[in-house]
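User: Please fill in residues for this 248-position structure.
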């Protein structure tokens, strides 16, 4: 699984700090589909600098936050939450014992994992019986996949070689790893900004697109994903899918 470090990590953390309200809808998706409970122990996979971690820690008994980048995890450590444990592993390298977690949550991260088969075997091992698996990510053939392949891959400081999902492969992974047939739904997410300039800067920093400019980031996003004015905000379409399953 790809590690975010150096300029990629620095710019990613900057944009989330500077635009804390841009991804509010992502938090609503987490609450709706994961539905965390106060008594639960949850594993967050590919957590990055902890966009979801602070809220999740407020909602559960214990949160184990995993990411292959120690640099990214420093931001989560700085939250100072007593019920958060950090582990510097990618999904395909997780080694956390057996039947430990009530649920696994991952959002926008696992397209960076090339060995999804190993990841799902790890998920099945660490989840309790009937434990929930909830993954939000980019699927092949979507406008978001096109954005990544034509914009981010071209201009990102580290490149963006990834393995996007298909519904069929996700179903096969669940079948082979001991999960129920997953429910896969479209997420019509909109990221919100006060100005178009903010939108361009956010994307520029989010993906460390240092080989171009924020203005060009905005143009590419408008052309491929679409931007519309709504209730005083400029809303960027960010079409993902959510996979929900249970360990048998």
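Assistant: Residues filled in for all 248 positions:
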């Amino acid at each position: 699984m790809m590690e975010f470090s150096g300029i990629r990590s620095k710019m990613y953390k900057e944009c989330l700090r500077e635009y804390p309200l841009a991804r509010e809808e992502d938090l609503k998706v987490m609450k709706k589909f994961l539905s965390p409970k106060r008594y639960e122990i949850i594993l967050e996979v590919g957590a990055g600098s902890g966009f979801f971690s602070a809220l999740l820690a407020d909602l559960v008994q214990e949160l184990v936050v995993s990411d292959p980048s120690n640099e990214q995890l420093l931001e989560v450590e700085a939250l100072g939450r007593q019920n958060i444990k950090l582990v510097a592993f990618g999904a395909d390298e997780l080694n956390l014992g057996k039947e430990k977690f009530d649920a696994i949550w991952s959002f926008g991260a696992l397209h960076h994992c090339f060995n999804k088969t190993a990841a799902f075997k790890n998920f099945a091992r660490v989840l309790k019986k009937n434990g929930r698996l909830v993954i939000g990510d980019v699927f092949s053939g979507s406008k978001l996949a096109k954005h990544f392949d034509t914009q981010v891959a071209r201009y990102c400081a580290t490149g963006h070689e990834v393995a996007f999902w298909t519904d069929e492969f996700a179903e096969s992974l669940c079948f082979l790893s001991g999960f129920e047939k997953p429910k896969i739904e479209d997420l019509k997410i909109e990221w919100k900004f006060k100005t178009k300039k903010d939108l361009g800067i956010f994307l520029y920093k989010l993906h460390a697109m240092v080989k171009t400019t924020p203005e060009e980031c905005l143009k590419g996003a408008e052309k491929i994903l679409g931007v519309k004015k709504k209730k005083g905000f400029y809303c960027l379409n960010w079409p993902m899918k959510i996979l929900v399953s249970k360990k048998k």
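For context: The radius of gyration is 17 Å.
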